[in-house]
Specification:
Helices cover about 55% and strands about 5% of the residues. By secondary structure, the chain is mostly helical. It has a 3-stranded antiparallel sheet with strand order 1-2-3.
Length: about 300
């Protein structure tokens, strides 16, 4: 029995030796994905470019693709462009203390996805941390009013006034606001066409186009802005972020305000999901039964938003 056991150990040792490893590098106690892990293999620039191209084909926005590229380039520089398990674990351990859990989770997922794409099965043993508990920020009408007073001191007050009123009454995501062009705005019908078309540099989180609406106050602010504006897109991201630096809210908080004010007015959740562009996956009613025309949606919107003339 002892002789058989020794022969098995000798056989395993020879396999490890041939693969450039040792008996302790991927022992029986390691996860299955880490056992029999291959030696370090070079990763090419072509593999990275192909991976990023696939994200583009999926419809990911340019900013997110650039973010993925930054994550991967930092990782690949650290591991010297080699798929090395131990160095990968070292890198992810070091990165954990450099950012919040949400950002760290994104990095782990993208590195894991990239290595899986390259064919390294051992990466399955690397699990990202769970999503952190989210504490939802309460956005009051007073916070919106204070923000409007702050941007009124800016040279571009007309632009930022339109941005705040539009975002607070339409429920668009901040990235969707930044992508808007004059052609997306139907001023007379108070309608926004939120377009998903990566070829035009316009994307949505769910990869579906939709419509939303805005109030009469937002219509007036937009009308004033469109008369003098020559920009396309309408709301340059960097400038808009800078303009609200001293304000109690950020551009992304305008969407929160819309959601919260809609619920305070007892608006139907199903319509709010449609206007805000939530994923309908798992919602049987919206996926299979509930179908509202644009006119019907606007009628419900106006009723909830108090005839589309209530002041913030």
């Amino acid at each position: 029995m002892t002789l058989i056991y020794m022969n098995i150990l000798l056989f395993l040792y020879k396999i490890r030796k041939r693969r450039g490893g040792d008996l302790n590098s991927c022992g029986a106690d390691a996860p299955r994905a880490f056992q029999d892990c291959p030696p370090s293999v070079a990763i090419t620039q072509q593999q990275l470019e192909e991976f990023l191209s696939l994200r583009e084909i999926e419809g990911s926005c340019n900013d997110w693709i650039k973010g993925i590229q930054r994550y991967l380039l930092r990782y690949l520089t650290y591991v010297d462009w080699k798929a090395d398990r131990e160095k990968t674990i070292q890198y992810l351990t070091l990165e954990r203390g450099k950012c919040n859990i949400s950002t760290y989770r994104k990095k782990v997922l993208q590195i894991r996805k990239f290595l899986m794409y390259c064919g390294y099965q051992w990466v399955q043993g690397i699990k990202p941390p769970q999503e952190p508990e989210i504490i939802i920020k309460h956005i009051s009408p007073e916070a919106i009013q204070k923000t409007l007073r702050i941007v009124s001191l800016s040279k571009e007050s007309v632009r930022y006034n339109a941005l705040i009123l539009l975002g607070a009454t339409s429920g668009l995501r901040s990235e969707e606001l930044y992508q808007l062009t004059p052609e997306d705005i139907d001023l007379n019908n108070r309608t926004i066409h939120v377009v998903h078309n990566p070829l035009q540099g316009k994307t949505t989180k769910t990869k579906h186009s939709r419509i939303s609406f805005f109030t009469i106050e937002a219509q007036q602010a937009l009308s004033q802005y469109l008369k003098s504006n020559t920009l396309s897109p309408l709301f340059p991201k960097g400038q808009c972020i800078q303009a609200l630096k001293q304000a109690p809210i950020r551009v992304k908080d305008l969407r929160k305000y819309f959601s919260q004010s809609w619920d305070r007015s007892c608006g139907p959740t199903s319509v709010k999901k449609l206007l805000m562009g939530h994923s309908l996956r798992g919602d049987i009613d919206l996926s299979h039964y509930n179908n509202q025309s644009p006119e019907e949606l606007r009628g419900i919107y106006d009723k909830v938003m108090d005839g589309a003339s209530s002041s913030i």
